Amino acid sequence: MISLRPQLSLLLVCLVSNPVLAEGNTDVIAQPNAVGNSSIINQNMNINNGMTGKQQFGGLVCSQPTMAVTPFYTGNEAENPYAENPTYTINQGWGVQLSWMIPLGSDNQTCSDLAAVKLKLAKEELEKNIYDKNLVRILKCQQLHASGYMINPKSEYAFLCADVINIKAYVKANSDLFDDSQSPSLEP
Fold first, then answer.
1. Looking at residue 98, what is its pLDDT?
2. DSSP assignment, residue 20?
3. Cβ distance 49 to 99 under 8 Å?
4. 137: closest CA among 123, 125, 151, 154?
5. E-strand stretches of the chain
6. Distance between CA atoms of 76 and 91, rounded to whole angstroms?
7. Domain that residue 131 falls in
8. What is the DSSP letter of 127?
9. Where are the beta strands (DSSP E) in 14-165?
10. Cβ contacts of 79 within 8 Å, gap of 6 or more
11. 74 CB contacts (<8 Å, ≥6 apart)?
12. Residue 117 lies inside a defined structural domain of this protein
């Protein structure tokens, strides 16, 4: 069982002791006084460079790593000529933002492979267009020759049909290139 003796002793001492009074004539009235005078300037500058560089191949869009360096300047002037003490303030902010934007994912190999395929297709399309252009040029020159016309050799466009020649005229002019002994005989 817990002994109550120490607790009772403490209680008796508290009840028997004399009250304590302040000395002299003292009137204490609480008068809290607080003066707040502050100016908070909270400026935040966000410069966002936008999205990462993108390559688009048909319906597939591939983000690319991007590094951007963006210098900036901000400034303002404030004047209060009507105050008791007129003020004039200039605030200037200079800085540079350096950003690295890296797309998520392990690599861009799919995009690189697709870019190589697209480049190959573009080269083939260009070659086809050059072939088609030359074929049309040859056909038009042949039609021009067949109708009895030709481009004046002194014209700046003479080169257009310069390499289109009639086969019979070519064989006749270069008969030494065609040896009849090697051509197959028509006789059985």
1. 81
2. P
3. yes
4. 151
5. 53-57, 60-64, 66-80, 87-101
6. 5
7. 109-176
8. H
9. 53-57, 60-64, 66-80, 87-101
10. 86, 87, 88, 89
11. 45, 92, 93
12. yes
Can you list the residues of the chain whose pLDDT is less than 50? none
pLDDT digits (tens, 9 = 90+) for 112-151: 788 888 889 999 999 999 999 999 999 999 999 889 898 8
Residue 172 lies in a domain: yes
Work out the widest C-alpha separation in the chain, in whole angstroms.
157
Find out whether 95 and 71 touch, Cβ atoms under 8 Å: yes
| Tokens of residue 160, six digits | 């257009």
The answer to whether position 69 is within a domain reads: no
Distance, in Å, from the CA atom of 177 to the CA atom of 170, rounded to the nearest integer, reads: 10
Into how many domains does the chain fold? Answer: 1
pTM above 0.85, yes or no: no
What confidence score (pLDDT) does residue 114 get?
A: 81
Flag whether 67 is in a domain.
no
d(CA 122, CA 15): 105
